[in-house]
Amino acid sequence: MENPIINILMVDDRPENLQALEAVLGSSGYQLTKAYSGEEALKWLLKKEFAIILLDVQMPGLDGFETAKLIRARKKSKEIPIIFITALTQTQDYAISGYDAGAIDFLFKPFNPYILKSKIEGFVKIYETKWQLQMQNELLQKQSKQLDEAHSRLEQLVELRTQELRKTNETLQKEIEEKQHILQLAQANEAKYRLLVEDSPVAIILHELHKENWTFINETGMKMLGGLHVKDVLSRTLYTFVHPDEHEVVKQRIERALHGEKVEDNELKLVRLDGETILAAVTIIPFEYLGNPAVHIVARDITDMKKTEEYISQSEKLSVVGELAAGIAHEIRNPLTSLKGFTQLLEYKDDTLNPYIPIMLEEIDRINTIVSELLLLAKPNAGDFRKVKMTDLLQNVVILMNAQANLQNTEIKFHTLVGEEQDYIDGLENKLKQIFINLLKNAMEAMKTGGEINLNMMIEDNLLRIQFCDQGCGISEEDLAKIGQPFFTTKEKGTGLGLMVCKSIIDSHHGHMDIESEVGVGTTITLTFPLCDVYSEMMVDSNN
């Protein structure tokens, strides 16, 4: 056990007296603390624990006797030995006053250093003995507490073990009864499981790998493969129902399954008993059946689903054709108008009846009718509207336009303040994409020396707002008022149809377009669309 640190508090208002005490005691390894008044001594007692206090009697402010009484009045410090050091008379009354104040001993100046050290050593030994006894007492209490806790834990363990043995005995009795009950229910459960497998909406097949024929197939699988009875399927080999082009693929997948790999949702061409080829999503799961390696095959007929996907793809292609037709129609109608006008002018000015002019007018009208029919292909239909995620659409457009932007030393930046599931609107994705591409192209053409185009998306008042901000040449107020009018353009080779078509598409989506521009600074175009739920409420109100 290590010895405690010995702190000694020396209190004297004269620094030379404290230096004398420090010279006597400094070499003994004690921690010496100096205080120059009674008040400072009391402060030190609040900060540290002291083994002995050497206290001068005559001090300004609180004298030694008053300081000692205050030390004794405090519970934590009342047991600390106090040695008074004084140069006053050694009368008996004076000494009694010191002892009443709480002194243990007196030293009179000038004092003998040897006597001081001896007294201090005696009190230090008492302090160390007291400290060791206290430590031993605390250790004994701790060990006693540990023994009590160990004894308590031992009793708890014994009780717990006894309860466990009782429970084990009860559990064994219950297990015997349960096993007897399970044995009785096993056949019933097997029948229920078989019924569940039989009624499954997907084909379930069991194939033992050491056999050529299948071991089991449910009714769904039998019907999928064109069988009237289960034996129609089980009497044939696995590869009877696999398309010849897929034989090698199936062998490889079964080999992978034998190595413990689960082969999920692979598309396979299967041949029905009536010769029809179907497409199935097949999952092969390895397992053991009666100790033999086997595979559990789950198959879904996806022939109709694939046809539907192909139909959707074809519809999208038709939509693209419609857009192309609309563009061609716009370009054809302009020269048609001129041709018809001049032909009619020739008819009125020509005195003779020209037989070719009526034919030409008839054919021009026929072309105009065909053009009108082409325009119908691209006319937006509210019934074709779908939920469109605008963040994904804008990101795709930015990626699409980045190549052209890089060639023109232009950078397109997309910023969104819209949450992940809040950016849906009802619309036609291709038409919306047409708007965005057109606006980005216009912005790049306006920025002859390059720069930045910023796309900002946010939600305000339940409306989705998309801003296209460029650093181009800008548009004058006079031209800005004409923007969107048919055939008005500020470009040398423009047709004036671009923004007009964009506005038409935006209107069909119940949206709005605002244009702000400053010459030499740039242009900001803001598109506003109702969000999905807002759009739905508008449609309900209009129907009502």
UniProtKB/TrEMBL annotation:
Q: Which residue range or ranges hold the PAC domain?
A: 264-314
Keyword field contains Phosphoprotein:
yes
* Enzyme Commission numbers on file: 2.7.13.3
* Family annotation (Pfam families): HATPase_c, HisKA, PAS_9, Response_reg
PANTHER family, per database record: HYBRID SIGNAL TRANSDUCTION HISTIDINE KINASE C, TWO-COMPONENT HISTIDINE KINASE
Tell me the protein's name.
histidine kinase
The residues covered by the PAS domain are: 189-261
Residues of the Response regulatory domain: 7-124
All copies of domain Histidine kinase, residue ranges: 327-533
